[in-house]
Amino acid sequence: MPPRTIIIAVNDAEVQLALKNHEMSVSDMLMIELPIANEIINKARIIVPKKTTATQQSIRQHIQIATRKLVIDHVGPETTYAPIVEFGAPAYPNYPIQPFMRPASLGNIPAITAAAWAAVRLFLARALKKAP
Length: 132
What we know:
The chain has six helices and two strands. The chain is mainly α.
């Protein structure tokens, strides 16, 4: 079964306006992105079905691209059967679909937004301290 991807893009005009006058490094971008990823990871680890803890423990972040303008990462489990738990499979018609990554991401937008804004405010506070 091919992996499925949920894309959450932060393209908020207010965030862009708040950051437009500040030169950002890759580490700045990652500092803002990490709390967002952690919010999804922590929520997914709570709601994932736990027949064993293998899938729960395998949920982590994998940075795909990190530049001064863009961070793309993959947040999800690494067990081979996790997609079957999340999406079901025709080969297992009696196995219930038990989504955990979709609710942790798409069903968790207010907490993700709060984490993003907290990280942006922290970045701006540090940037203003460094300003001459």
